[in-house]
Amino acid sequence: MKKNLIRALLTISLGLLASLAFSGCSRKGEPIAIIWTNRAEFASYAELFNKSQSRYRVVVEYRENPAGALINAKENPDIVIGPWLKGEKARSRLIPVDYLFNELRISSKLFYYPLLDLGNVAGRQYLLPVSFNLPALIFSPEKQNLVSNDFSLSLDEIRKISREYNVKQRAEYSRMGFAPRWDREFLYIVAQMFNARFEEDARLIKWNEKYLAEAIAYLDDWTRTSNGSSRNEDDFQFKYLYDPPYKLVTGGRNLFSYIASDELFTLPQDKLQNVNFRWITKAGKTPVSDGIIYLGICKKARNQDAAEAFLIWFFNEKTQKEILERSRDLGTLKRSFGISGGFSALKPVNEKAFPLLYPSLLGHLPPADSLLVPKILPNNWEILKREIVIPYLADAVSGSPTAEELQERISDWKKAH
Q1: pTM of this prediction?
Q2: Of 353, 365, 295, whose CA–CA distance to 328 is shortest?
Q3: What does the alpha-carbon distance between residue 108 and residue 85 come to, in Å, rounded to a whole number?
Q4: What angle do CA 407, 230, 262 make, to 5 degrees?
């Protein structure tokens, strides 16, 4: 699916470049802004922008890791869009865009403040948030009576309800509500909710050792007191949990399955209507998934006027409503959720437009005052998280690795790379 989206993006981008070249336009002489992104949806957005007016043009070029490409670029694009742009090396290639707020060309009041604040460094707004996702648990509507909260589920509630759902016959479980270890991403989410504070650092990454230890202790206690042991969880998962998350919960063997919002809302309608969901919380806070999409204007942008025009057009409630309606009409919402694969960073868009396209969001919109955002992370965070952090958490919950062992894994990884 991802390769198909990328292929579509490249096809549209190359077509735009060819048409511009054919008409005699050149990057040097005309107001054409180049966008680097790994979000295929922006090919369609660029096309819509180009049709909306005749003064400026934008052309989209695919980069698998826009942050990494920007860091190593000999010549900057005009706009860069993607995750992990907040790191120091990528951010140094961008200009602050506060002036767009000061000149009232974009309203800062439209944004979710925690997301906007994450793009602000030392009082300067280098990045504007585009889209984000949230972690959720899904369950069968038939089990609605077991879930008292209509909006969210705290970790303690998940743990309690799951334990009560368990059924053990002789030495084996025939039903098991939920185990954090079934999805390693969930382990990381718990660590974030405990304020482990993984963050970019000169030594690669840093974290809060106290809070990380508390998260691991909580997860380990959950496994032992609710499900008996990690072996019980593994055996149950091996025997029964081999179907997609939505199918598992409707089968009744387990009560909850973890799923991210972008995956949840691209489920076919016949499957989506057969599950219910709640956002995951701790102390009233819902963690935002790491890969928040941000947008920035690059230093030495050759066509800053065109770049600014695109930003002003894009960060507009009416524009994003039009984008969503066009995506619906083209059928692309079936494979890409919302705006750029997630909830819009503009509150009014989520509140007014999303429920019309996603009826199950009525009463379940992201809580503006309770979003918990990650710290600034390096541009290779996906690799570090996949190869170091999550394996460490999985081993720690199953055994007893120390915080020093995590640092040793980081040192070993640095030597190997």
Answers
A1: 0.91
A2: 353
A3: 20
A4: 75
Burial of 289 (0-12, 13-18, 19+ CB in 10 A): buried
Q: Which residue has the tokens 């972008």?
A: 262
- Of 256, 254, 233, the C-alpha closest to 176 is 254
Whole-number Å distance between alpha carbons of 132 and 114: 11
Neighbours of 214 (CB within 10 A): 15
What's the pLDDT tens digit per position in 328-383? 999 999 999 999 999 999 999 999 999 999 999 988 888 888 899 999 999 999 99
Confidence label for 4 from pLDDT (cuts 50, 70 and 90):
low
Residue found under tokens 């079936």: 334
Query: Looking at the chain, how many residues does it have?
Result: 417
Question: How would you classify the pairing of strands 135-139 and 257-260?
Answer: antiparallel
Asked if 87 and 67 count as a contact pair (C-beta separation under 8 A), the reply is: yes
Of 221, 174, 317, which Cα lies nearest the Cα of 325? 317
DSSP secondary structure string, 6-75? HHHHHHHHHHHHHHHHHTT--TTTS-EEEEEES-THHHHHHHHHHHH-SS-EEEEEE-SSHHHHHHH-SS
CB atoms within 10 A of CB 348: 15
Q: What is the pLDDT of residue 368?
A: 84
What is the CB neighbour count within 10 angstroms for residue 30? 14
Cα 55 to Cα 49, 307, 309, 310: the distances in Å are 11, 12, 9, 11
Which residue(s) pair with 33 in the sheet? 58
- Taking CA atoms, 96 is separated from 123, 172, 187, 296, in Å, by 10, 59, 35, 8
Mark 165-190 as b/e (b = at least 16 C-beta within 10 Å).
bbeeeeeebeebbbbbbbbbbbbbbb
Those residues with Cβ within 8 angstroms of residue 54's Cβ, 6 or more apart along the chain or in another chain: none
Task: Give SS3 for 352.
Answer: helix
Contacts of 75 (CB under 8 A, 6+ apart): none
